[in-house]
Write a structure and sequence with these properties.
- This protein is mainly beta.
- The chain contains two helices and 38 strands.
- Strands 1, 2, 36, 37 and 38 form a five-stranded antiparallel β-sheet that branches.
- The chain is globular, with a radius of gyration of 25 Å.
Length: 492
């Protein structure tokens, strides 16, 4: 009897589980993130973005659906998705309480994460005389990722090389770039056009600078080779002709690409690569350092044109290590660059943290076809205190973490390795769960979670022979054929 009385007293003193009876001002428990048990999805899925908490937008490509699911894989709502082979698929961005979807239909739409209700919609204007159809516009964000912070914009950029045949552009030219405020869906600054002789090269139009405050655009204005720096604050721009400086380029090709560096007065000019009929050409690149003035007065004209200001532009061929591919960004927004470079007798990783000068590190031979090629980058840089890490297959066994600033090894570990060409298994990709400090690698028939600080393996799970990996920061999916395994970060 006394035991029963004592138990009743303890229950009365403990109060309700929702915190009733606690003194006023008592702080609520701080949520602790943890990794939920994996769940199976019965469709070929990839995660596109998440809301930073408990929901993810997942592409079900066979059914042409976008599905919002929770950590248990339960669907909350879905919409049809435009995923035809002739189009670019679907891109999406998380901004506060909304998820913003661009599906190459000519319309960009924001939906409520909570219930899928439409919040706003932006349709690309069907301007008379425009030779850039709405379906030819893709997107990227000024955040460098799929989750947007305060002040970030969504950029709608023309990604087709050829304009419509027999089309006469308007007097203002062809519009090639729009900037949307993700909160309202309205244009953040007036759209930018190229003149009637303007030609873009297809693919990504703008390359983000390491500080993500501006971008560099490579294009042709008639016979004139041009680079344009565009400020994301207000859309002002400076366009410089580089035709004479391009005499260093002996390929004879009109197409070229220029990447920004941390120094606004020094750009990286890349040539001798990306031949359409040669898939391995991206592994053999040549680069030159392009010097441009950084203090020219910007223009707010709606049409891009060469500046009339005196501009000293020069280019110097270089065989030093440089970053000659697009930047990727960590969860904290730090830049990193990684590519493979094929030499006569060796394969090297080539990278940087956005600086003018880069570095080389040893790489396995099969990395040429698997890391950052044939489908795009399959890696994500990792925040590591003051460092930024690049996680790649080691030259022999295991994986290695390289310092993005120097290329020096931070740690190595046994674990998945990049298989040789033709062998079972492939580098399915590497991502990071920053809230948990975990690196996720899919390779060699398994998905493995590693401690980002030490490289020590935490757990591993079976995967298919050629599983692909996708991630959004809080969700990871490893997909093989028609099924998928999903992990989610949950707060407890």
């Amino acid at each position: 009897m006394w035991a029963a009385v004592a138990l009743a007293a303890l229950v009365a003193l403990s109060g309700c589980s929702d915190g009733a009876g606690q003194p006023e001002g008592t702080p609520s428990p701080t949520p602790s993130p943890t990794l939920a048990e994996p769940v199976e999805l019965d469709y070929y899925a990839s995660v596109i973005t998440d809301n930073g908490a408990d929901l993810a937008l997942v592409g079900d490509w066979m059914s042409q659906k976008l599905r919002v699911v929770d950590a248990e894989g339960d669907e909350k709502w879905n919409i049809d998705s435009n995923t035809n082979e002739d189009d670019g698929g679907t891109e999406a961005y998380s901004a506060g309480e909304n998820v913003i979807v661009h599906d190459y239909s000519g319309t960009t739409t924001a939906y409520s994460w909570a219930d899928g209700q439409e919040v706003w919609s932006f349709g690309l204007p069907d301007t008379a005389g425009s030779c850039r159809p709405a379906q030819s516009f893709g997107t990227q964000s000024t955040s460098g990722g799929s989750r947007l912070g305060e002040g970030d914009l969504i950029l709608l950029e023309n990604i087709w090389m050829d304009s419509e045949e027999n089309c006469e552009p308007s007097a203002e030219g062809d519009t090639v770039l729009y900037a949307l405020d993700p909160e309202t869906g309205k244009e953040a600054w007036p759209a930018l056009s190229v003149g009637e002789d303007g030609q873009t090269f297809g693919g990504r139009l703008l390359e983000l600078a390491p500080d993500r405050k501006s971008g560099i655009m490579s294009w042709m204005d008639g016979d004139e080779s041009m680079v344009t720096r565009i400020s994301f604050d207000d859309g002002t721009h400076v366009s410089l002709p580089i035709t004479e400086a391009r005499e260093t380029d002996d390929t004879g090709a009109d197409y070229f690409i220029v990447y920004p560096t941390a120094d606004p007065s020094s750009l990286t000019y890349v040539y001798g690569s990306t031949e359409p009929d040669e898939p391995m050409s991206s592994a053999v690149t040549r680069a030159a350092k392009l010097s441009v003035p950084a203090d020219l007065q910007a223009s707010d004209s709606a049409t891009l044109a060469a500046t009339e200001q005196s501009a000293d532009v020069s280019m110097e061929d270089t065989f030093d290590a440089v970053c000659s591919t697009e930047l990727r960004f960590t969860a904290e927004g730090k830049p990193a660059c990684l590519q493979t470079q094929l030499f006569a007798s060796a394969v090297k990783y080539q990278g940087s943290d956005g600086a003018i000068d880069g570095w080389y590190a040893d790489a396995p031979e099969a990395a040429v076809a698997r890391i950052g090629g044939l489908g795009g980058p399959q890696w994500e840089p990792v925040d590591h205190g003051d460092q930024t890490l690049l996680i790649v297959p080691a030259p022999r066994d295991g994986i290695v973490a390289l310092d993005a600033a120097s290329g020096k090894t931070v740690w190595t570990t046994d674990g998945p390795r990049l298989k040789e060409e033709g062998e079972t298994g492939s580098w399915g990709g590497q991502r990071v769960l920053p809230d948990l400090g975990l690196i996720v690698v899919t390779d060699n028939k398994k998905t493995t979670f590693f401690d980002a600080k030490t490289g020590k393996p935490v757990s591993d799970h079976p995967a298919g022979d050629y599983s692909d990996q996708s991630s959004s920061g809080r969700f990871v999916i490893a997909t093989n054929e028609d099924t998928s395994t999903m992990w989610a970060v949950v707060d407890t």
